[in-house]
Amino acid sequence: MRAIALDRTSAKPVLRDDVAEPHLGAPDDLLIKVLEVGICGTDRAIVRGEAGELAPGADYQILGHEMLGEVVEAGPTAASDYATGDLVVCTVRRPCRLPECPTCAHGESDMCYTGKFTERGIFHAHGYMTSRVVESTEFTVKLPPELRPFGVLIEPTTVVEKAILESVRVQHRLDWVHHLNEEGAIAEDWRFVRRAMVAGAGPIGMMAAFLLRLHDVETHVTDVVPAGGYKAALVDSIGARYWNVAETPVAEVARQTGNIDLIVEATGIAPVAYELLTALGVNGVLVFTGVPGDRGGEFQFQGGHLMRQQVLWNQVVIGSVNANRSYFLHAVKDLGEIARRWPDALAKVITAHHPMENFETALTTQPKDEVKAVFDITPSS
Description:
By secondary structure, the protein is of the alpha/beta class. It has helices at residues 41-47, 102-105, 154-170, 203-214, 230-237, 250-257, 270-275, 304-312, 325-341, 343-347, 359-364; strands at residues 3-7, 13-16, 29-39, 60-62, 66-74, 87-90, 93-94, 118-119, 132-136, 140-143, 195-199, 218-223, 241-244, 262-265, 285-288, 316-319, 350-355, 372-376. The chain has 2 domains: 3-150 and 350-376, Medium-chain alcohol dehydrogenases, catalytic domain (Quinone Oxidoreductase, Chain A, domain 1, Alpha-Beta Complex), CATH 3.90.180; 158-319, Rossmann fold, CATH 3.40.50. Helix 4 links the parallel strand 11 and strand 12. The mean pLDDT is 93.
């Protein structure tokens, strides 16, 4: 069986053809044929040696954490909910299962206290850039057939589902009468997110823009590529507005548009991320989703005026990493609605399909207009 993996000895990506076939090992397991795997900035950072870690003693680690697959076989317990041919996606992080970690015990491994988690394709666990995988239904989510063209976008969508929904919940601090849903939990209330900025027009930023527009939020997307190009046109096509920050700095964007209630950072460049504080409005939330490597380097800035602004304007800055299964369920629902509302625009998010043989070029280069590139995992492999 073939797989794209990071080789420990050479520290380079390789295409292996000697990976052992997986087999069902538990009643709730699924044998899944991998159809597509998205190429993420994290994958490229791993290849550059800036992120990720192989399992101790492993000679290689299969890459990839954004997958779309099809069920081949279901264990006896899994068969009550999954059938051959079902489309599925799998989550990324696996819980530490340590007694001192209440978040992992309650299905929120993305909030793990111990750091003893594993992550498929990233940290101490094989990923999905291979022909077939076995996964527990605990970490699997079913997709409707109509999401086949877009299913590989589920995982990046979950990143912004979590980041944005956490920010929306933070803003319940502004609600003097909390609205409860039928289960007694605080309902998602978007009244206090009227205007948002998304920094970065890559896959995370683009899916953030789709999600915000789905909730009728006035959305402004910033990047350094010229207005009138591919990314700008895609942003404009969903009713958001594109700004080239090489021409209009983010603080000026905020001055022209009005109070920014939410900023979603999706650049992974630290100096750019912290500059966003200059654009954040009164009672606003800035959420970081990028994980800086060596892009942009370290930086220093005089933060006294920004600290004063944060205190006097009641601003919140939070970080948000990957997502647990509940956000995958949110993403399936929302991506379905996005696909119905903007099918042509959503299709344009996927800008390239690569065969597995093109692994080296796809993992080490990034064309200017790329939004999301995908590996097609060939059926014959």
